[in-house]
Amino acid sequence: xxxTVESEILELEERLRLADLTPDPDFFQxxxxxxxxxxADGDICSYSPKSFIVDRHRPGKAxxxxxxxxxxxxxxxxxxxxIVTCVGNFEGxxxxxxxxxxxxxxxxxxxxxxxAGAMSQLDSxxxxxxxxxxxxxxxxxxxxxx
Length: 146
What we know:
The chain is an alpha+beta fold. Helix content is 25%, strand content 41%.
């Protein structure tokens, strides 16, 4: 059974996907927290992630996508916080690529906001490399990856 919080997050994640596809800078202006932190491909972003993301979704500046498919979504609810992980497949005139994402949503007085995120580009579209990605197994040490 899907909880109310999970349903809200699923709806917001779909709206985020559509805001990437359209593009829609207003969505990002509204739902990214002013103090958001972001890691991209392992680097901590030293600039204002919100300003950068909003600007990159303005007409004429955004990358054009014909299709964005989100797969492998997992949502962990912890009180007023939701942690989302997923894989995105982006298709457009510039080619196809895959990315992994992690977003931390927090419910504040004025609604849900993304307060932290991480993204990494995959070498190939995710549907081509799914079996090549790996995570620590339950039997491995916390610092070893199989």
